[in-house]
Design a protein that fits this description.
0% strand, 66% helix, disordered C terminus, mainly alpha
Length: 183
């Protein structure tokens, strides 16, 4: 039975990781992209995005970034709403007395397609941003993304930091007793 479930768990794990990174990126940009006094900086009110203020984006860079950012926010919101609706439909399918496995699989594919669309949108956004940012700003941006997404050696969804007492050890502090990711 484990052999039949293992591939599904791998697919689910990959999908969750892709979704987490994509939706995190969309969420950060959407949440920090609102115009208004809550997001203004006394030093540079023309740049309303805290991320770009943190990166030290110049006003000239901002004039190129802002329209693309607004467009990205609209597109990501549409995808987010579509995937959220499809997840609700999936729950409805799963909750029926006799779930239709083919319909569930088809809905899962629709959800994964939405995740891929979101990931592609984020990738295109980051590539466009690279064209405008300096090398130093790019490094800071990608370092921030690595930290937030957990690709800097953390497991952010579990709040765990890796124990690196031994080279190559992938044991995570706070994990369940006897649980090691390298087993």
């Amino acid at each position: 039975m484990w052999k039949r479930i293992a591939p599904l768990l791998v697919i689910l794990s990959v999908a969750i990781n892709v979704a987490f990174i994509s939706f995190w990126g969309a969420h950060v940009i959407r949440e920090h992209g609102h115009h208004g006094t809550w997001f203004t900086d006394r030093h540079d009110e023309a740049i309303w995005c805290p991320l770009h203020r943190k990166l030290g984006t110049s006003k000239q860079q901002w004039t190129q970034i802002e329209p693309r950012l607004v467009e990205f926010r609209k597109a990501s919101e549409e995808i987010y709403q579509d995937v959220t609706r499809k997840r609700a439909e999936m729950i409805d399918l799963l909750s029926t007395p006799s779930p239709d496995r083919k319909a569930i699989q088809a809905k899962q594919e629709e959800i994964l397609a939405g995740h891929r669309r979101m990931q592609q949108l984020v990738i295109e956004r980051l590539l466009a941003e690279k064209e405008v940012l300096t090398v130093e700003q790019q490094k800071e941006l990608f370092d921030l993304l690595r930290q937030r997404s957990g690709s800097a050696g953390q497991m952010p969804m579990l709040g765990l930091q890796p124990d690196v007492s031994e080279p190559g050890d992938t044991t995570y502090s706070g994990a369940a007793p006897g649980h090691h990711d390298n087993q």
